[in-house]
Design the sequence.
């Protein structure tokens, strides 16, 4: 079944909860190689989305909803992650403008646009120890699974597994972008906070897709 605006709002609502539950964990990861605020930043941004959720649920255009989320993240979150995730949601929303419901293929269109936005804004390459290291393999896995005929829930499950692997692969490598790169070799041995939040967001999408029969 296609995903409705109601399903999108359900997904946003779960993202809000998941980031709130992981606020300390993400902040702890950022305390090792950054400035101990990633969980605080993500929670602040998604709590601001939470305030707008009733209003967003009354909208009919999925693209417009995601764009509103992006603007909210950009305007409420300081730090690198606000503009980066904000751009991801803005670009995903722009790619879906006019859609009142989503087919599985729309996930790929939105995901590719989101990743492209993050890369354009942050200029990180794969292996720089950033959220790009979780997002890139996730979108590739999504694409492969959909091409093989998977439904949205199955394809997102594959994307979630790929994001988790990419997240773990940030541990042994040195950061080359963002605040963690200031540490040079001392960034080695720690999991990237942004790759971790990206994995959590994709896992949430997979769970909602499964629950809603998408
Ligand atoms: P800040 O680093 O400004 O304190 P956050 O702590 O909220 O912001 O976010 C840090 C995360 O942002 C990093 O773990 C990394 O994944 C991501 N990040 C930082 N710079 C970039 C970049 N140029 N491109 C992609 N992701 C980045
Ligand atoms: Mg930080």
Sequence:
């Amino acid at each position: 079944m296609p995903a409705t605006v109601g399903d999108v709002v359900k997904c946003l609502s779960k993202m809000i909860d998941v980031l709130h539950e992981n606020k300390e964990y993400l902040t702890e990861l950022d305390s090792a190689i950054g400035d101990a605020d990633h969980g605080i930043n993500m929670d602040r941004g998604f709590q601001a989305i939470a305030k707008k959720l009733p209003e967003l649920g009354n909208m009919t255009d999925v693209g417009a909803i995601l764009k509103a989320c992006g603007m909210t993240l950009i305007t409420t979150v300081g730090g690198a992650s606000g503009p980066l995730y904000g751009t991801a949601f803005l670009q995903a929303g722009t790619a879906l403008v006019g859609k009142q419901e989503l087919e599985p293929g729309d996930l790929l269109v939105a995901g590719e646009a989101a990743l492209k936005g993050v890369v354009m804004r942050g200029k990180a390459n794969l292996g720089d120890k950033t959220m790009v290291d979780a997002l890139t393999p996730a979108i590739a896995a999504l694409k492969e699974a959909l091409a093989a005929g998977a439904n949205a829930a199955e394809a997102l499950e594959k994307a979630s597994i790929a994001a988790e692997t990419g997240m773990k692969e940030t541990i042994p490598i040195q950061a080359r972008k963002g605040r963690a790169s200031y540490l040079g070799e001392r960034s080695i041995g720690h999991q990237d906070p942004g790759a971790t939040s990206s994995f959590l967001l994709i896992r949430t999408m997979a769970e909602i897709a499964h629950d809603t029969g998408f």
About this structure: The mean pLDDT is 98. Residues 3-212 form a domain with the Serine Threonine Protein Phosphatase 5, Tetratricopeptide repeat fold (CATH 1.25.40.340). The longest strand covers residues 3-4. The two ends are 5 Å apart (CA to CA).
